[in-house]
Amino acid sequence: PGAYGEARRPECGQVDRLRDEVDRWALETAIERTLPVLGICRGIQALAAFLGGSLHQDIPGHQRTAARNVTTHEVVVEEGTLLSRIVGGGRLAVNSFHHQALRVVPPGYRISARATDGTVEGLEAADGAFRLGVQWHPEDLAAESALHQGLFDALVEAARYSSVTPDCRDLSP
After folding, report:
1. How many CA atoms lie within 13 A of 45 on its CB side?
2. Contact 62, 96 (CB under 8 A)
3. pLDDT for res 93
4. What fold does the segment set 2-163 form as a domain?
5. CA–CA separation, 17 and 150 (whole Å)
6. What is the reported pTM?
7. What is the largest CA-CA distance in the chain?
8. Domain spans, the chain
9. 62 in helix, strand or coil?
10. Reported confidence tier of residue 60, pLDDT bands at 50, 70, 90
11. Catalytically annotated residues
12. pLDDT digits (tens, 9 = 90+) for 1-10
């Protein structure tokens, strides 16, 4: 909450400031170097919070307790988005393990998917760069779903065809 100028609500639980600092540094470094980004769950929240958006700190009743590889609700993927090119448009069954969600879209980003209750579930760079966040956990669904595996395949392809050759020697927070 501090990243977007709000006091932490008790429902948020404890804030891991070191993790926040490392996540912010990693995201800013990836953007600066034009590396592809796929933010999952906390990752979409980091995209929003660290880049000028904000979050709903607690969405009562939204967190599900089903097994991680079980879908619990659907999202509607916006046509004409990077996400729709990867998983197709229309409805996509996803899992859910979060109690926070995007409230304000950061500048230069657009919503690419929403739950049927209106909760933002997908966010991406409006300029077409591969900076994509999803609120669900596709890694838990990928073994049984080519659509969810497609997110990881697209990330690998974006990295493969990136004009940037990462040099890990100069990476330090």
Report:
1. 19
2. yes
3. 86
4. Rossmann fold (3.40.50)
5. 32
6. 0.83
7. 45
8. 2-163
9. coil
10. low
11. 41, 137, 139
12. 555 566 665 6
